[in-house]
Each structure stands twice: as structure tokens, then as C-alpha cells.
Design goal:
By secondary structure, the protein is mainly alpha-helical. Helices cover about 30% and strands about 0% of the residues. The protein is built from six helices and no strands. It has helices at about 5-10, 15-30, 75-80, 85-95, 135, 140-145. The longest helix is centred in the N-terminal third of the chain and has 19 residues, at about 15-30. The chain is globular, with a radius of gyration of 22 Å. About 30% of the residues are buried.
Length: about 170
């Protein structure tokens, strides 16, 4: 037997194949699956504003269930305890509510890297009310339809008074 064949035989063996296959399965699962054991799995409808691919709430908007909650239930539960979850109601109950305020109290191009009018600023759909996940992370349609680490919408905002995008 040649030296190269001996090296190949040492590297590959049935005893190594099973752990390698299990490891690969775990890696693929982590890359393509939901990240939360409390996943809900309600299929989103088509985006109300297809030009931006924002999803907003799934089901009845009054229930305040962001589409992202399907796989990221823990993050969504934390969000529900913040003022962002009540941004629309807070605006409406204020004495100075105006249409010019709505873009910041909804999912729109404001707060993320989109530069053209989007979301609530295009279609006044109740699914886009409140400052939801996509307000900062950007459109989630591509990620929801084939979730991977590579197409996960990452937070892109800069919270600074001199920022050109962000709050």
C-alpha cells in the first residue's frame, strides 16, 4: 500500500464518519432553523408593501404578534415590555399626533437602511403599526421564506442626533 493510501485510511474510518455526520447535521440545523424553542409558526401573508418586503404583524394586528415571533419568541416577548410595542397607541393618545409623526411610530424606511418611502409610509396598513423588529432590522420577507444566517436582517440603525439613518 502506498504512503498516500495509508494516510487516507487513517483519516477516514466508520468510527469518524458518524460523529462527523452528526456535527454536520447540528451545524445545518443551526444555520437553517428557528432559534427559539417557543416558536409559534404562523405563516405570514404577503407583504402589504411588496416594494419593501416588510411583513409587520401576523394575524390580527391588535394581538401585536410580529412575524419575527414565529422563530424569535423570546426576543418578541421582551419587545412587548418596551415602549416600542405601544408606539402607535402612544402617538394616537398624545395631544400632538400628526401624520408627519406616523413614520417613526410604525415600520417604515425610517430607522433602517432603506432610503425610499416604505411600509406604513406607502400603505397605511395596521400590520405596520408600532416600532416592530423590522423598524430597525429591515425587511424580513426573504429571511422568513428561507431562514439562514446569511439573510438574517441585522440591526443597521445608529441612534445618534447626527445620524443619517436611525432614530
Amino acid at each position: 500500500m502506498t504512503e498516500r493510501a495509508t494516510e487516507t485510511r487513517r483519516w477516514w474510518s466508520p468510527a469518524r464518519a458518524l460523529p462527523a455526520a452528526l456535527l454536520m447535521g447540528l451545524v445545518m440545523s443551526a444555520v437553517t432553523a428557528c432559534v427559539d424553542e417557543n416558536a409559534v409558526f404562523d405563516r405570514p401573508g404577503e407583504p402589504a408593501d411588496p416594494s419593501s418586503n416588510f411583513l409587520g404583524y401576523v394575524g390580527d394586528p391588535a394581538e401585536q404578534r410580529p412575524n419575527c415571533e414565529n422563530c424569535h419568541a423570546t426576543f418578541a416577548a421582551g419587545w412587548k415590555t418596551t415602549g416600542h410595542a405601544d408606539a402607535w397607541a402612544g402617538l394616537q393618545s398624545s395631544s400632538h399626533a400628526s401624520e408627519s409623526c406616523e413614520g417613526c411610530h410604525t415600520i417604515s424606511e425610517l430607522g433602517n437602511e432603506l432610503t425610499e418611502p416604505a411600509g406604513y409610509n406607502v400603505v397605511k396598513d395596521p400590520r405596520y403599526r408600532d416600532v416592530q423588529c423590522e423598524s430597525c432590522h429591515g425587511p424580513g420577507w426573504e429571511h422568513v421564506n428561507g431562514p439562514t444566517v446569511l439573510n438574517a436582517p441585522l440591526c443597521s440603525i445608529v441612534a445618534d442626533v447626527d445620524a443619517t439613518v436611525g432614530c
